[in-house]
Amino acid sequence: MEARRLLLSLLLILTLFGTGVARAQSPGAKEPNPVPASARPLTVPPTCTEPGCSGKIPRLLDKAAITAAYCTQSGCNGKNPQGTNCQTYAYRVFGYAYPIGSFGEVELWYSTNCVANWARATGYFGQPGVWVEQNGNQYPASHAAKGCSGNTCWSAMRDGSLTTRACGAAAPYTGCSPWG
Question: Is the pTM value of this prediction over 0.70?
Answer without folding.
Answer: no
